[in-house]
Design a protein that fits this description.
Layout lengths: L2 H21 L8 H11 L6 H10 L6 H22 L9 E2 L2 E2 L1 H4 L2 H20 L7 H15 L4 H10 L7 H11 L1 H13 L6 H28 L2 H4 L5 H4 L5 H5 L1 H19 L7 H12 L3
Antiparallel strand pairs: 1-2
Length: about 300
């Protein structure tokens, strides 16, 4: 990440962290164990890639910061809930997330399940909160978009395909279909929600922005698979090599390491091409595509 992008990203991450801390229930509010675990799951960690993408997309449409912040926090809460559930023993069964014990390890499995449920509900409560900058129809569409991205035709459906694929070798198109849903759907939603907080784009601009988001979402997953094969646990903040150990199909297992890295670069180039006509207004979108592809954790 360049110094300029780092400076911008740090500002966005600080805003999001502060807003999430306000939106989450107080740790000592009853039921205190659940609320403490919710804050443990969300605060003080993570790259906040989805909020960064939402803010970058909002720059295309001159979106008010307060509106984008609301949308960004809603997406991040959905993402946090998905991680808590993904780490459960009946799912991916992981004990480390963001460099600390997963929620079911730190608390217990029942609490982790409730944390995920509560964070999902809170996400929609946040997005549905009164927002003077948005008309009712736009806010309704945003709620529908996030619900679709998180549901059986999006993230949850992709996770179901992932679980059903353990021990099986998928083709590259099948793997892409899975990750367009599991990882890509919420990333695409973050980009579109950020843009929808401002002036409406025409159909061609919407198409370009969504293609960018599709490419970035897939690139994020390809790089995740590469890092799982190459990076140590201390760098990743989660258990390295777990996908291979569990027999999960990945871009590395399907394509091989060199081809997976090349695919990530192709997706980065496609993403940059998609937003090039936006010029300087897409500066942070372009820089985030570079960061997502070239990150080390």
């Amino acid at each position: 990440m360049t110094p300029a992008l780092q400076n911008w990203a740090t500002g966005v991450q600080r805003l999001v962290e502060e807003e999430l801390a306000l939106r989450l229930p107080a740790a000592d509010a009853s039921p205190a164990r659940l609320h403490d675990a919710m804050r443990y799951a969300v605060l003080g960690g993570g790259k906040r890639v989805r909020p960064l993408l939402a803010f970058a997309a909002g720059e295309l449409t001159s979106a008010p910061q307060v509106a984008v912040l609301q949308a960004a926090c809603a997406v991040e809460l959905i993402h946090a809930y998905s991680l808590v559930h993904d780490d459960l023993p009946m799912m991916d069964d992981d004990s480390l997330r963001r460099g600390k014990p997963t929620v079911h390890v730190e608390y217990d499995e029942a609490t982790a399940l409730l944390v995920g449920d509560a964070l999902q509900s809170l996400a929609f409560e946040v997005l549905a909160a009164p927002q003077p900058q948005l008309d009712a129809a736009r806010q309704r569409d945003m709620l529908s978009l996030l619900a679709h991205a998180a549901g059986s035709h999006g993230m949850a459906g992709g996770q179901a395909i992932d679980l059903a694929s353990i021990g099986h070798m998928l083709t590259a198109p099948e793997l892409e279909f899975m990750h367009i849903h599991k990882t890509g759907a919420l990333i695409r939603a973050a980009v579109r929600l950020g843009a929808w907080c401002g002036t409406a784009l025409d159909a061609e601009a919407e198409r370009r922005l969504d293609h960018y988001a599709k490419c970035v979402g897939l690139a994020f997953q390809v790089v995740d698979d590469v890092l799982d094969a190459e990076a140590p646990t201390a760098t990743l903040g989660k258990t390295a090599g777990k996908d291979a150990h569990d027999g999960k199909p990945t871009y590395v297992s399907v394509l091989g390491l060199p081809a997976a890295k090349e695919l990530a670069e192709e997706l980065r180039r496609d993403a940059l091409d998609a937003v090039a006509p936006f010029g300087d207004m897409a500066k942070h979108l372009a820089e985030l595509a570079d960061y997502i592809t070239h990150r080390s954790y």
